[in-house]
Amino acid sequence: MYHCVCCNAALFSSETKYDSGTGWPSFWQIYGTVDSDETNTNVLRRTDNSMGSTGTEVICKKCDAHLGHVFDDGPEPTGHRFCINSIALTFKPKTTE
């Protein structure tokens, strides 16, 4: 599981991680998404006009940390590519009990 480096909120599952060829950690879905409903996730989307064109920034819902951006050129089943800054994430392996 990938967590927010600032507040430890669960953000992305390694099960939705893929190699996008960009060099950035990429995921096709936010952890906690049910069908296409992201209401109960720890990630928010917001419009970003900072780079001379309109894009979609993704931030941590719990602490407002910048995570990266989302694009509509990802793989099925969602078609999304959440392109995330690696320093925004902490990986925590699944523990076995």
Question: What does it look like?
Answer:
- The chain is mostly beta strands.
- The protein has one domain (2-91): Peptide methionine sulfoxide reductase (Metal Binding Protein, Guanine Nucleotide Exchange Factor, Chain A, Beta Complex), CATH 2.170.150.20.
- 0% of the residues lie in helices and 36% in strands.
- The chain contains no helices and nine strands.
- The protein has strands spanning 2-4, 10-12, 17-18, 26-27, 43-48, 55-60, 66-71, 81-84, 89-91.
- The two termini are 16 Å apart.
**What is the count of distinct domains?**
1
Give the strand content: 35-45%
Strand order of the largest sheet: 3-4-8-7-6-5
CATH superfamily: Peptide methionine sulfoxide reductase
Q: Which class in CATH terms?
A: Mainly Beta
**Rough outline:** globular
Structural class: mainly beta
> How many strand elements?
9
Secondary-structure arrangement, i.e. CATH architecture:
Beta Complex
Outline the low-pLDDT stretches: none
Count of helical stretches: 0
Mean pLDDT: 94
Please bin the fraction of helical residues.
under 10%
Would you give the CATH topology? Answer: Metal Binding Protein, Guanine Nucleotide Exchange Factor, Chain A
